[in-house]
Protein 1
Amino acid sequence: MRLPRVHIDTESLIANYRTMQGLAPASVCGAVVKANGYGVGLLPVVPLLAGAGCRLFYVASLDEGVAVRRLLQNYGVPTPDIAVFHGYLPEEIPVYKQYAILPVLKTPQALSSWFSGDHGPAVVEWDTGMHRCGLSPALAEEVSLLDPQRLHHIMTHLAAADDPDHPLNVQQKEYFIHIARLFPRVPTSIGASHGILLGPEYHGRYVRIGIALYGGVAHPDIHPVVQVHAPILEMRTIAAGQSVGYGASYVAPRPSRIMTVGFGYADGYLRSFSNTGQALIQTKDGTCFDLPVVGRVSMDVTTLDATDLPESMMAEADNVVFYHPQQGGIIDAAHRAGTIPYELLTSLQPTLARWVVGDA
Ligand SMILES: *Cc1c(COP(=O)(O)O)cnc(C)c1O
């Protein structure tokens, strides 16, 4: 196998879902699977979560919603709810109806045209301070006159939930409670992954769990889900003073062994890992050895400093691991690259093979 492949730990995925359920025991736990299940893949993720009892899925686009519906039909899962964050275009209405998908309505136009027809229930999003999507709270009185049966739930999204001390958290929550009072018979939804960690007043009837499922939240009971295994393509020895890769950005301070592995930015390994990322080599007995990225990340390959790697480990190895838990997984890697776990995961190209490991 000369291509990188994504390893997905199904047991950890399910354990993470259970952890979040435990943290929001009074809520129905929806799974956010937009962007191809955060880059992990709809196919491995959605049926597993359904098997764990998940009956509410959030996606970004109608296409994704239809894909989730079909996937679950194939697995014989009884009619879960599927909500589309992007809302709808008028010409898409028949598809929403055919697949019984809930649009998330967030503009006055979308709201009035959806509810002027007989189109089934929808979700309504309120802007309580993120100023990205959602209806203005000034419309709450007017919208509250709608038949509550037509509102599957009302939701808002927190802008700074990953910073528990941010004043926006309390402000947005208060604002939303104020709106929700006008909808006493309509279920609510506030928290995504980080919002759930803020405590029960940030949950609502439905929570929307995204990144925590995939191991991208630092919490003792959230486990890493994704690793990338990349094939070792070449080994070479260079002299002190010789450089590695494009731009000669790394100059070896000593005679070095450089390992070239098949995982580059075209596969989803960000170029900002140049001279700062790390991989790991693992032998069958579990011994691990860190290999720092040296030089720039290229399109299909990355170069690692393997100078200190013991010969015995080298002889045994045919691939290296990126985002290994021992190196802090996607969370520490994201810090190194100056980004967030979300971007690392969703950068993984859908064309990479997905290997499902674990018994879940
Ligand atoms: C992506 C998204 C989520 C999930 O957020 P996580 O931080 O990944 O849990 C929830 N709600 C909305 C509106 C989103 O766009």
Note: The radius of gyration is 23 Å.
Protein 2
Amino acid sequence: MQLATQAQEIMKMANFTLHHLPLACLLLLSAPLIAFATSIPEGFLQCLSLHCENTTPISEFVYTPINSSYSSVLNITIQNLRFLTPYTPKPLFIVTPLHVCHVQAATICSRWYGLQIRIRSGGHDYEGLSYLSEVPFVIIDMVNLRSVAVNVEDKTAWVESGSTVGELYYRIAEKNRTLGFPASVCPTVGVGGHFSGGGYGMMLRKYGLAADNIIDAQLVDAQGQLQDRESMGEDLFWAIRGGGGGSFGVVVSWKVKLVPVPSTVTVFSPLRTLEQNATKLVHQWQLVANKLPDDLFMRVILWSDNSGPNGTRTMKAIFSTLYLGGVDALLEVMKSGFPELNVTRQDCIEMSWIESVLYFAGFERGSPLEVLLNRSSNTKSFFKDKSDYVKEPIPESGIEGMWKRFYEEDERVPIMIWSPYGGKMAEISESAIPFPHRAGVLAGVLYKILYITDWTNGGNEVAPKHVSWIRDFYCYMTPYVSKSPREAYINYRDLDIGTNNVIGNTSYEQASVWGKKYFKNNFGSLVLVKTAVDPHNFFRHEQSIPPL
Ligand SMILES: Cc1cc2nc3c(=O)[nH]c(=O)nc-3n(C[C@H](O)[C@H](O)[C@H](O)COP(=O)(O)OP(=O)(O)OC[C@H]3O[C@@H](n4cnc5c(N)ncnc54)[C@H](O)[C@@H]3O)c2cc1C
Ligand SMILES: *[C@@H]1O[C@H](CO)[C@@H](O)[C@H](O)[C@H]1NC(C)=O
Ligand SMILES: *[C@@H]1O[C@H](CO)[C@@H](O)[C@H](O)[C@H]1NC(C)=O
Ligand SMILES: *[C@@H]1O[C@H](CO)[C@@H](O)[C@H](O)[C@H]1NC(C)=O
Ligand SMILES: *[C@@H]1O[C@H](CO)[C@@H](O)[C@H](O)[C@H]1NC(C)=O
Ligand SMILES: *[C@@H]1O[C@H](CO)[C@@H](O)[C@H](O)[C@H]1NC(C)=O
Ligand SMILES: *[C@@H]1O[C@H](CO)[C@@H](O)[C@H](O)[C@H]1NC(C)=O
Ligand SMILES: *[C@@H]1O[C@H](CO)[C@@H](O)[C@H](O)[C@H]1NC(C)=O
Ligand SMILES: *[C@@H]1O[C@H](CO)[C@@H](O)[C@H](O)[C@H]1NC(C)=O
């Protein structure tokens, strides 16, 4: 804190701005100067305060480890408790910009002092890449930049990257109940990371991904320049809509196209046990879920517990469904499309779209919409997740093999969520944005699997057991899922599938191991964009796009 004040004084006396620093020098910096960096944090603070004149004193938005709030600011949005330990590497500084200029200053000064930056919006990264690094680093935490400006006439909104999707949904509903946006089921996810990696929710089959509905963006690039769609050009604008966060710059805000939603939607979540033919139903679901009308999105959530006969282990399947229409139409659709599920009127609830957001987020019926503004409403846990894409239905024997493996793990620890594609997802070309998992040339995606192991009992001590279970399970699934490459969803970040070198000299071949899984042939185009806009690889992490 004293350092910050000092820097402020120096700035005032010197009446000097960073623009006077030779930009050519900044551009020449490439490899991180690690030893240099740790020894001169003071210079970093000075640099920050010099850059943005006439704004807020840096003591109001920069936290150093000696500040009493540092630890709570750091911990607050860490979702995965596996990375919330005293041994997790901590940042030298946390910058929480109040103005775009602070983002620019943090970028320029981190680069000048050879510090790596980690950008954090909602902190939901599965592997903690937004707030931890093995080399000296600074967190730019977008939490204070979270205004949402909804324009109902245009049906658009500008949303700053520190907003959560819950805040976005709330601000839209506040203005108009028949407009919505197709993004995350979980409201605490940050739009900064979420839209950068694609982003999907219950309207996936009707409107595609969040990233499919972005029409402009503001980004601070590796030179610290603020760019919009027009000035950054279509290649970079393409790359940031699905190419993954933390590779191309700091997204400050997104302009999105809102989508129409009916005034009444219908939800239902019937639960089926093995005794109620869950295995057959899940098998059948694979044949129909991607072919049902686009207005219907039916995910399957699967887990195991001890509620079988005489307290034995059994499987449960919930068919969690949103229909963009009323119950009468829905029952017709179900009768012709998936009669085996035997959905009845009693299973269904009609409500507004925004109420359905609360319903799928797990809030009690009748909760005020304001719960969407609670950035910590989501319960934190220890977890390790993985993803797969399925292109051919898995036979019943394969499904029964999954159940067997579920029974070997603790009850309720593993969960699978199967999300059907088809509809709009199959209409968009594989290269329209970097997210490639669409209809395919030979075989299209039927559905995506999210594998979760999620626990609180036992903390990190039991992590090896659970992580090893999910890796074995992933191995078991090999014959049933996409191949060459085995595709994965970047927003379900998984460092098991490959990583870069932490010092930043990753080769194209090394990165393409994980890169092709997330992006297929779009990986090559992402590398070309990266080479053009950040050739010195300033924005980097374990799975960032490398330059050539
Ligand atoms: C409980 C939970 C529920 C989820 N539900 C869904 C879901 O329904 N649908 C879905 O698609 N995904 C879901 N996800 C995954 C989620 O989309 C990703 O974890 C997403 O990347 C989170 O974004 P964030 O801003 O919260 O995360 P962060 O951890 O802040 O960031 C994620 C990545 O993006 C980078 N980044 C963050 N902000 C910016 C920025 N402003 N500019 C550039 N790069 C940035 C980070 O450096 C990091 O690499 C869920 C995750 C969790 C933990
Ligand atoms: C750091 O702590 C001091 C008090 O110790 C406080 O005045 C200052 O505002 C804090 N900085 C931030 C960014 O909160
Ligand atoms: C933040 O988490 C760390 C690691 O578990 C812990 O030591 C610290 O006390 C936490 N800080 C606060 C304010 O809770
Ligand atoms: C809400 O948006 C819809 C679709 O754009 C429009 O038809 C309707 O008039 C709007 N309603 C209000 C109250 O603004
Ligand atoms: C399970 O399937 C069998 C045969 O297909 C059928 O007769 C039975 O009614 C089903 N049970 C339930 C609970 O749906
Ligand atoms: C449950 O336990 C009772 C008493 O031990 C036994 O008679 C019955 O057969 C068991 N049922 C099943 C389905 O295993
Ligand atoms: C369908 O559900 C209804 C109501 O729950 C039930 O009465 C009926 O037996 C079920 N039919 C089948 C075939 O399972
Ligand atoms: C936000 O959600 C958390 C977790 O459910 C809860 O403990 C907290 O009280 C909520 N905060 C507010 C302001 O409602
Ligand atoms: C990256 O650097 C490491 C350590 O210096 C070295 O061993 C490795 O060969 C380098 N990789 C490439 C692709 O240059």
Note: Residues 265-351+381-480 form a domain with the Vanillyl-alcohol Oxidase; Chain A, domain 3 fold (CATH 3.40.462.20).
Protein 3
Amino acid sequence: MLIRHTPDLRESEVTDRRLYLDRRRFLALGAGAALMGAGQAQAGPIASYAKGVVVLDDKPTSKEAITTYNNFYEYGTDKEDPAKNAPGKLKLRPWSVAVEGECARPGTIALEDLVKPHRLEERIYRMRCVEGWSMVIPWIGVSLAEVLKRFEPTSKAKFVEFATLADPVQMPWIKSRVLDWPYVEGLRMDEAMHPLTLLATGLYGEELLPQNGAPLRLVVPWKYGFKSIKSIVRIRFVETQPRISWEKANGREYGFYSNVNPEVDHPRWSQASERRIGEFRRRDTLMFNGYGDQVGSLYAGMDLRKNF
Ligand SMILES: Nc1nc2c(c(=O)[nH]1)N[C@H]1C(S)=C(S)[C@@H](COP(=O)(O)O)O[C@H]1N2
Ligand SMILES: [Mo]
């Protein structure tokens, strides 16, 4: 079994952790602040979450790298752009998410109400970008399946479509039409309902920073990074396969499924190996990013060269 949960933190540990985090926050706000780089803007600590360990023998990538080497085209196309441009620009509260389409209980729901009924847990996942680099990220979030069930999807709900905020005031960079905004992504219903699929609100024990897709982003660890859509404002249950932003931009290079697959190369980049950020030697890329035991059956009988 891949996910191994340690028991919930006991109250004393939670308290200890809260004191520890308060102290860190205090330090960060004081003398520490000057030492922090641009990407290290303050994020609130998450005081209580279940330690869920995803058993992979990888060690997490540094927080520095995770928060300064990003893809978030709404804030520029260079890796350093989101950490420079998103903090202070993206307004994180209040935040709400519209849930629409084929479900019995559609509506617009405040972020807090969307997340609160669920158990926050840590998931340490590999992330691999189709560009050929990868990281290991200790996310904190809730199971997407648990959240979606509350809206009671109907039998017509075959796919779930997600959209990022597209506000030219908070995201002036979207005036350059590199993609068709809003950024849209989608999953087949069984992929959305898979226990590995996470709605993330934090990483490394703290709330997400804007550059990582605050306050709410998807994490689908067996797919290329671009499926993990950031700063979500809309979730829609639909009957037909959504047209995702990358497919619209270049359907020959980016497919709907985008499962990590070392055997199917991207026209411009080999997918056979990857550079783990912080490492020198390239690693072999694993089928489904190493999560094949868990997710392989979702694609039984599908031609993954056609459905790339
Ligand atoms: N809205 C939005 N979501 C996005 C992107 C983006 O440009 N806009 N980039 C994607 C890509 S290509 C990757 S690799 C991951 C990067 O996530 P990270 O910066 O938190 O590592 O976010 C994905 N989600
Ligand atoms: Mo990516």
Note: The chain is about 20% helix and 25% strand.
Protein 4
Amino acid sequence: MPETPPQTQKQIDDLFSELKTLSDAQLGYPTNQCFDYSSLFRFLEFSINNVGDPFHDSLYRVNSHEIEREVIATFANLMRLSPDETWGYVTSGGTEGNMYGLYMAREMFPEAVVYFSQDTHYSVRKNLRVLNYRNIMIRSLDNGEIDYEDLRETIRINRHLPVVVMANIGTTMKGAVDDLDKIRDIFDELAISSSYIHADAALSGMILPFVDDPQPYGFDAGIDSIAISGHKMIGSPLPSGVVLTKSDYVGRVARSIEYVGAMDTTLSGSRNAITPLMLWYAFKQQGLEGFRNIVHESLATAEYAVGKFNEHGIPAWRNKNSITVVFRRPTDEVVRKWQMAPYENFAHIITVPNVTRDKIDAAIADCVANPRTTN
Ligand SMILES: *Cc1c(COP(=O)(O)O)cnc(C)c1O
């Protein structure tokens, strides 16, 4: 192969050092940067591709399907479904996983109405547009959970139609968890005969399995599918996620494709084969005990941040079992400097392991030194 031209090398070096600086001051996005995948670098030498269903043979055999199935089994156990009854795959991220859940729901209940709260991730509205799936937005409570009263009354009006609920297991802005028990109680109360719950557990899907008193979040709480991000709590340089559903459902979308000798059950065709390997490696390297420690440490840091903000006169709070710390919005410069995520009159930081107490102290000092002068 030709050598890298000097000008190109300079651009590479400049980008590298810029990213290094920027990564250090990123507090508002839930991407755990504490990872080390260096033992997997050599896999970049292959044209490795997980095209097709990871549970079926494929003619394209340079893949990591076997590893991918192990990743799905690990998540199945965490999400409280027997691996034998689970189907799923490693996606490109939370958006694709949510799209998959809604796709499955639509194949099962094309006549349904999808209900989702105001605090639902922006990807869901886009997914619903792409799928051309009938939907109604429900109000949120102040803490970010869906407004159960509004949900009940809105379903009541459409109770003759199947119900699909897009439940948030950790909202993007406030880390709120919709109460799956209450949602199912509403179905019972209104005698809904056909229903489907997809859970968007992008971040909290890797938190709740490891806490002592989790809100309901898994298949044991009546969900039908769930999406979890790989690059958030677990951490990875390549965005990824997993989607899980029940294996009896997947026949509804399966089509056999002769060209690749595979079952076309996934949304993407060619799929990343390195991300399953990274997720698998993270679980091997940390073990479930390692993730339990990471989660407990992150929750303790979140509690520390809430205390510090309040001590400095900046109102701050968080939801139960959440590492998303919500506080009064600082100035735009402070938001930019620390890459906080702003929304209306508040902002948040998310205490993944690289968001240390030192950085929190420094960011709070900036908030205090630069008070907002308007509203
Ligand atoms: C981040 C996030 C997503 C989308 O995940 P991507 O991996 O960016 O596609 C979906 N839902 C929630 C709640 C999220 O926080």
Note: The longest strand covers residues 86-91.
